[in-house]
Design goal:
133 residues, single chain, mainly alpha
C-alpha cells in the first residue's frame, strides 16, 4: 500500500515544502497528484480482482505486475509534470522530500502492523468464524 498509494504518486509529483511554488497553481498541482494516485490505486485494485480470477499462479506472478507497470508508465507519460519552477535550495527541497517519505513509511508500517495484529486475532479468513444471521 505504501508503494501504490504514496511512493508511485510521489515519484511523479513529489511534495515540496510549504510556500514553494506558485499559489495560483495549487489546485492544478493537487489534481495532478490525485490523478496519479487514482490511476495507481484503482489499477492495483482492479488487477488484484483480476488476479483472483486467474487460476495460473505462475503466469499471474509475472503478468499482473507487468500490466500494472505498463499502466503506471502510461500515467507517467500522459500526466504533465509540476509546472512550477523551484527557486529555493534543492538541498532543502530534497531533505523535505526524504523526511516526508520516511514519515509516510513509518505511518504505513505502523498501520500494517496494527491491522495485521487485528487480522491475526480475529482470523476472518477462516470460514468457521463466519456467523450467519
Amino acid at each position: 500500500m505504501f508503494s501504490i498509494l504514496f511512493l508511485i504518486p510521489a515519484l511523479k509529483n513529489p511534495g515540496n515544502p510549504p510556500a514553494v511554488g506558485n499559489p495560483e497553481t495549487i489546485v492544478y498541482r493537487q489534481s495532478l497528484y490525485i490523478g496519479m494516485l487514482t490511476i495507481s490505486g484503482f489499477s492495483a485494485l482492479g488487477l488484484a480482482l483480476v488476479s483472483r480470477a486467474i487460476n495460473r499462479k505462475k503466469s499471474k506472478k509475472v503478468i499482473i505486475p507487468l500490466i500494472y507497470a505498463g499502466i503506471i508508465s502510461i500515467g507517467f507519460i500522459i500526466l504533465p509534470a509540476n509546472p512550477d519552477d523551484i527557486t529555493i535550495s534543492m538541498e532543502l527541497v530534497m531533505n523535505f522530500r526524504v523526511v516526508s517519505t520516511l514519515t509516510m513509511g513509518v505511518f504505513w508500517a505502523i498501520l500494517g502492523l496494527v491491522l495485521g495484529s487485528f487480522w491475526d486475532k480475529t482470523n476472518p479468513h477462516e470460514s468457521a468464524n463466519i456467523v450467519t444471521i
